[in-house]
Amino acid sequence: MRSTRPRHRLRLRHPLEVPLYVVLVIVNLLVLAAALRLLIVVNWLPVQLQNPGWTSAVRGVIIAGLLVIPAIVVGRELSRAATRGTALQLSRAQYPELYATMTGYAQTLGLRRTPDLYLANGNGALNAFAAQAFGHEFVVVANELFANLRPESQTGLRFILGHELAHIKLHHVSLWYQLSLCYTSWIPLLGAWLSRLREYSCDRQGAYLCPDGEVGLVLLTSGRYTEQQVNIPQLLDQGQKLHGFWIELAQLPRTHPWTVRRLNTLYRLALFNDSDRG
Questions:
Q1: 156, 213 in Cβ contact below 8 A?
Q2: pLDDT bucket at 9, cuts 50 / 70 / 90
Q3: CB burial of residue 207 (10 Å; 0-12, 13-18, 19+)
Q4: DSSP codes of every residue in 110-123
């Protein structure tokens, strides 16, 4: 259950996420405007200035870039269709306790509709994700994550579920959000940086919903069958020592922050219960 101790809701989004998002949206609009302008210029060049080779190449590249927009729309619908055809949908009659947790969290977060929840074969991966298609939001939890956390570590599963629902709450899976970053999300380092900030924001929301769910991040750190034996204070001490040039350099291209750092951050912000440190 969610803790009753007070928390400032403004802390539940990383302070750098929105500013960086705004910068990337502006760059995205500039890229789109430049592409359209270049397409117009190429088409209206005097015949004597046109080179069939490079003008055709420029047109092809620009048109392919513009097709990214409908490709995103189609990809979202295909993702939901594939999920519906290959995963188990949870309900009040199908793993009702986890479904009840999800509906409760959705209400707490103020989601306008309850997302669908699926259990999928992750082929060994410890993974979960949130997504959206037209008229539907949904969360998919890999069986390997579900099986490891469900019997003895319900709180870890609740934290991960809250984290994924936060992606929906914060509009990370919304069509307008994805279109607003359709080009700049691929910029090396910048796109990955924004992705890491999104993960930090969703971690905060997940810990707000389940402040004793640190075992979810422990499992992602140490792997299966280990989460109950990990010494949390020692792991936090490891996180405090996680700094230096090579650590930060290795982090730059990654879409997710170091898991050890994520855990340490939530304890530092007092979003995980101190009593869980053992």
A1: yes
A2: low
A3: buried
A4: T-SSPPEEEEE--T
